[in-house]
Description:
two-stranded antiparallel ribbon
Amino acid sequence: MTRRAAGTAGGLAAAVPAALFAAVAGTALHRQQLVISDVGLPLGAVAALLLLGSLQLLLGAAFRSVVPTAATGVLCYMLTGWWSTLEVGKRLILGDLAGNLWVYGIAVVTLAVLAWCRRYRRPAVQEQVSGESG
């Protein structure tokens, strides 16, 4: 197994628990609101998205690849999407401002962190071909 393949496998192995943690903690956190003048600001959803983004940035920098970052975002989005479509009474994410900000914000944060983590990629190894010119 090459070093690059081992890094990708390790990144994917780290992305699964990170996505599970981000989905569970973010779902628990997204309902927190700051009420100012009878207006609820969904700061919990913003904090949940910051948590997800920081985990994705950590994985992208640690493994020097965008694969763990993308896998974390996709898995987190799948879990929260599933939890938001459960039947009434079992649904963990409602379709209100905080819920929509949390679910759809995952895609936005993932794309932003993917764009940022491109700078951490390992440079491609270029083999020099020796040949005769002529």
